[in-house]
Design brief:
Blueprint (H helix, E strand, L loop, with lengths): L1 H12 L5 E7 L6 H10 L3 E3 L14 E7 L8 E6 L6 E4 L6 E3 L14 E5 L9 E5 L10 E6 H36 L2 H21 L15 H23 L2 H4 L4 H19 L3 H31 L3 H23 L10 H39 L9 H15 L6 E9 L1 H8 L1 H18 L5 E6 L2 E7 L3 H16 L13 E8 L6 H17 L5 E3 L4 H4 L6
Parallel strand pairs: 13-14
Antiparallel strand pairs: 1-2, 1-3, 3-8, 4-7, 4-9, 5-6, 5-8, 10-12, 10-13, 11-12
Helix pairs in contact: 1-3, 3-4, 3-10, 4-5, 4-10, 5-7, 5-8, 7-8, 8-9, 9-10, 12-13, 13-14
Length: about 550
């Protein structure tokens, strides 16, 4: 919108030569002289060249006469027709030869970007009427307005428009390509549908403004701009339909509308195929269907996004904010083709600016969606990695993290200690106080262990009443000191086991990493040390030693 305001202010600063206009449809036997004579007699239909006017392009076309108002001048002038019309226009001026211009004309030295421009030589009488013939095209004619200005003013205005349009198209293409990169990286087809939709809209505006011809010089499009533009419009609606299904999560928030929206997405390419078939009957059918389907489809997408947004779909509001203004502008432009809103000559440029605005808004919505997906994925990962009761690592996640720590320390002298912890008399606690009390005891013990260990140490629930911890950068003496402190902290919880004043405690076995150790070998040695503690009084820590009595310990709890 800032671009559009800036562009409008710049346009207002350019002074144009006032024109008086009149026109009528071409009839057989018309000549330039007879049309100019009818103009002087006042028998032509009068119109204001400064506002939008629609001229018939059916049958034989239309004649348009423009008479400059004001003092004569010798400077070089330019007559421009905005927006650039489909089909060719012939200028009859003075005694020189007639000149014909079209959007796909690559021979003219002066190209009006976004419009057609006729350069008038300085020697020509500046007050003489200018006669234009809008050649027949067989397509619905869009309204145009006319400007007569000095060459310097035209060049300034043309440069401003080119800067404005290039910036808008650059934003749309950049957002589309960025979405395509995300589609590839995230394997999410939602971004791909957005890319298709935005690129199709770029093609639509590029054809309608002539930007694809001047300045991009895409000569291979010459003669097929009408078909390319119509196909791009249909495909943009198709991509928008497939995009909104996933982006707004229609299946979740508006399930009854999912099938109609997807059907719209597949119907538009079928209409394009009919249009390209070359079979007259099928082409006529496609031309008959396209506008009603476009109108109904736009209303369907708008309604779907509104309902999804009302039911809690956050992305739907991004879609509505970005797409609704563009839909309103499209409706206003369509109304203008029927003669309504003739003074709103900025609608075409507003559509380009609003396309860039929509690209930015929907890109923000896609970024928000990507962040939401990442947050949800992280939450799922946390739920998958955490023990549901104690909220510390479960056995699988702890094993993976411990293996990564060991791999990171392989080939180095980095010391790693493994603690294997088993709660004493836990079965008796469950039997006497019930499993709910046992669960509360496990939660309390996990909290104590977490608070005593460093954040970088790995703590996990190995199973039942067993816990494991992997400590890095500690020697055996330090690790034993940590394990002893853990024993004391658990015992100080004073969790009663039975009526004989027995309190819950923990037995801890310790093993230190040696070269060539695996996680399984570390756990096995720490487990043996823990069993040794079980057999020798419990509620203490013991490092693994290669002694016969420790290796022969049996798994008694």
């Amino acid at each position: 919108m800032i671009w559009l305001l800036w562009f409008s202010l710049v346009q207002a600063a350019v002074i144009n030569v006032p024109l008086r206009g009149a026109w009528h449809e071409v009839t057989r036997g018309d000549t330039p002289a007879s049309v100019l004579a009818a103009f002087r007699q006042g028998t032509l239909k009068v119109f204001s060249p400064s506002i939008m006017q629609r001229f018939s392009r059916e049958d034989l076309g239309s004649w348009v006469v423009l008479e400059p108002q004001g003092a004569s001048t010798k400077e070089e002038r330019v007559l421009s027709i905005y927006p650039a019309p489909m089909g060719s226009i012939t200028l009859y001026a003075g005694h020189g030869p007639a000149r014909t211009l079209a959007l796909d004309d690559f021979d003219n030295s002066l190209h009006g970007h976004g419009r057609l421009a006729f350069r008038l030589p300085p020697g020509q009488d500046s007050t003489q009427p200018l006669l234009l013939k809008f050649e027949p095209t067989g397509n619905m004619a869009a309204p145009e307005r006319f400007e007569l200005q000095s060459l310097d003013d035209f060049v300034q205005e043309d440069s401003n428009w080119l800067t404005f349009a290039t910036a808008c198209f650059a934003v749309m293409v950049a957002m589309a390509l960025m979405a395509l990169c995300f589609a590839i990286m995230l394997h999410d087809v939602t971004f791909a549908w957005y890319t298709g939709y935005m690129l199709c809209y770029v093609v639509v505006q590029g054809v309608e403004t002539g930007f694809l011809f001047h300045p991009l010089q895409l000569r291979w499009l010459a003669g097929s701009e009408v078909l390319v533009g119509a196909s791009a419009v249909a495909l943009s609606v198709s991509f928008a339909s497939l995009f909104i299904v996933r982006f707004c999560d229609v299946q979740r928030f508006v399930p009854p509308l999912r099938v109609p929206v997807i059907a719209l997405g597949f119907a538009m390419p079928l209409i394009v195929l009919l249009r390209c078939s070359g079979v007259h009957e099928l082409v006529v059918m496609a031309q008959t269907l396209v506008n009603p389907v476009l109108i109904l489809g736009a209303l369907l997408l708008l309604f779907t996004a509104l309902v999804a947004g009302a039911r809690g779909s956050r992305p739907a509001w991004f879609f509505l904010v970005g797409w609704t203004p563009l839909l309103i502008l499209t409706a206003m432009t369509s109304a203008q083709t029927t003669g309504a809103l003739p003074s709103l000559d900025w609608l075409n440029d507003a559509s380009i600016a609003m396309g860039a605005f929509e690209a930015i808004v929907l890109s923000l919505g896609l970024a928000d969606r990507a962040l939401t997906m990442r947050r949800d994925r992280d939450n799922v990962r946390v739920l998958a990695d955490r023990d549901a009761l104690t909220n510390i690592f479960n056995r699988r996640a702890w094993t993976e993290a411990a293996n990564r720590m060991l791999e990171g320390a392989s080939g180095s002298e980095r010391s790693i200690a493994l603690l294997f912890l088993d709660l004493d008399h836990f079965k008796a606690l469950n039997d006497f106080h019930g499993h709910a009390a046992g669960d509360r005891a496990l939660v309390a013990v996990a909290d104590v262990l977490s608070s005593e260990l460093r954040p970088t140490d790995l703590l996990g629930r190995y199973g039942g009443e067993e816990f494991v911890a992997m400590l890095h950068d500690v020697n055996q003496e330090q690790a034993l000191h940590v394990a002893t402190r853990l024993c004391r902290r658990v015992h100080r919880l004073e969790i009663p086991v039975n009526l004989q004043d027995l309190r819950l405690s923990v037995s801890i076995g310790l093993s230190m990493r040696s070269m060539g150790d695996t996680l399984e070998s570390l756990i096995e040695r720490a487990d043996q040390a823990m069993y040794y503690v079980k057999l020798n009084g419990r509620n203490q820590a013991q490092a693994y030693e290669r002694r016969a009595e420790m290796r022969s310990t049996s798994p008694h709890r």
